[in-house]
């Protein structure tokens, strides 16, 4: 039996576990799930053979190391900041590791040690990052194999609510970590290239610089820039490309309304608010507005941010109940971002029968035989239910497939890596198609940079 250890069992793990369980007999797999809370994993495993579930506090080094020593490969589904702890143990005990998270500087620093011990530390093999890398590299390399040169690459991904569950004015619900949504775009200026010119968007302007794109059958979306598109110049071999832009997708109108929270300061996570647990939602909103002994909170906010009474943005704010004097924050020593998250979760938490949706869109501009051409590619995945979500499917399946490929010797290059080589992306993308995860590609006349914004 080949022994797989999954550390951490969050919302993205059900498909990962199901895939490995389904393969456990034919592939001779034994799967151990270790998490601080084992109830959910146990309920999904049931009486399936070749499995066990153990309670683990990852800060208990003895227990953690004992589990890692006993396995052949480790899957870390923990929050990204904890991967380095697992990775160091994997280096020590010569175990392969797979994660869906971005390669951190600390993980990257382990590359030479991993190579020396002939182990694989595979990262960024979820949906974004992950499927975006693999699908992009497959098309880019196909264009290059025909002698084409890349002049434009745009890539956008969104974790959204499925159309049949889209029933609020924001056209949005939390389908992933709410904290990441509230703090999105912070920590650095967005950087990208448009038609050969370097562009920069500071956080306070990020949500007012959006791009529009259409996906057949699903309508129009908007996208705001990710923090650093430029780091993919070398990764994707796009050093001479005139346009390189990566972003996050939302439904049109979301970003303009979200910009209100940014301007007010409600997304700030750098300080705590005094007596926050006793504040009402209305008190919290009023805390960011000027004092007036006669004007209401609503009037002050509309006046300060120049929001007309018949503006849909105003209706969106009202829908979130931010002016309610009776609802209490109930969080002690909370930051503005934490309080805003609490308020949003009242309205944006998925209901039992809600379904989520993953949308991904690539645009490739290239020149071949003296003629400019374009390929548009998009992927849409709808979740099944609250357990087997689209997010869990598109994150968990690539991780599981990479684990099996490493165990079977189909991925052999040692060291810290991401899925940008053919030995990784071709078989995984082909297998993902059997699970309904595929791209629709369309050849178009070259349109240049985002014609929908003209």
TrEMBL record:
Residues 4-122 form the Saccharopine dehydrogenase NADP binding domain. This is Saccharopine dehydrogenase family protein. Keywords: Oxidoreductase. It comes from Hyunsoonleella rubra. Pfam families: Sacchrp_dh_C, Sacchrp_dh_NADP. SUPFAM superfamilies: Glyceraldehyde-3-phosphate dehydrogenase-like, C-terminal domain, NAD(P)-binding Rossmann-fold domains. Residues 126-437 form the Saccharopine dehydrogenase-like C-terminal domain. InterPro entries: AASS, NAD(P)-bd_dom_sf, Sacchrp_dh-like_C, Sacchrp_dh_NADP-bd.
